[in-house]
Write a structure and sequence with these properties.
By secondary structure, the chain is of the alpha+beta class. It has four helices and nine strands.
């Protein structure tokens, strides 16, 4: 007769549970479908990765700010609209204010004692510019985006310390470096504060 200790039984049960976890991600209810996270939505994750630039500003070995900027190209907006429809079953077009114009979804995370410096719209703290054929231009709108939980299914890098902003420029939106373009046209965004200047290129 083999005696099995209760602690060992619990450990084995946990291992079996973890091994069968992928099969349990779907609901036990036949009429309930679990929405995939961003990392589990391969098509959308690929579009988000291509459209997002991330930079971290360090000063004296401390993180001063973490910036994520997603260029809302026509290609990304199509992927976003598709995921929006699958997540909320609503086909409403988002980012209406930025229709046909170059725009960015920017997240600024300023941890610790600098938390009050995450306001990208504060021109005393931040400068935002976009490079165009006519030279650098300022945005026509920098709008703080509220309701963080609604946006988290689309931008997984949002945290309790980050501030989110819709940044719009009065210049046409293009698919940067599209294979269909004979001449590649990069999109260049500059974000600066007292600590650093970020030059982001798509």
């Amino acid at each position: 007769m083999v005696l099995v200790r209760p602690r060992l039984v619990r450990a084995l049960t946990l291992v079996v549970s973890l091994l069968t976890l992928p099969a349990c991600l779907s609901s036990v209810e036949s009429d309930v479908t679990i929405t995939p996270s961003v990392k589990d939505d391969a098509v959308y994750q690929d579009a988000l990765k291509k459209s997002t630039r991330e930079r971290t500003i360090y000063k004296d070995f401390e993180t001063v700010a973490i910036v994520h900027a997603t260029y809302l190209s026509p290609e990304f907006r199509a992927a976003f609209a598709d995921r929006l429809n699958r997540v909320f079953k609503r086909g409403e077009v988002q980012f209406d204010e930025a229709k046909d114009r170059a725009a960015f979804f920017v997240s600024v995370e300023v941890p610790g004692i600098w938390f009050d410096r995450n306001d990208l719209a504060d021109t005393h703290l931040w400068s935002v510019m976009m490079e165009t054929e006519q030279g650098p231009v300022k945005p026509v709108v920098i709008k703080r985006i509220r309701d963080k939980e609604r946006w988290r299914p689309f931008f997984s890098h949002l945290t309790e310390w980050s501030g989110e902003f819709l940044v719009i420029f009065d210049t046409p939106s293009i698919n940067a470096n599209s294979d269909q373009m004979v001449v590649k046209t990069p999109v260049k965004l500059m974000i600066a504060n007292a600590e650093a200047q970020l030059n982001l290129v798509w």
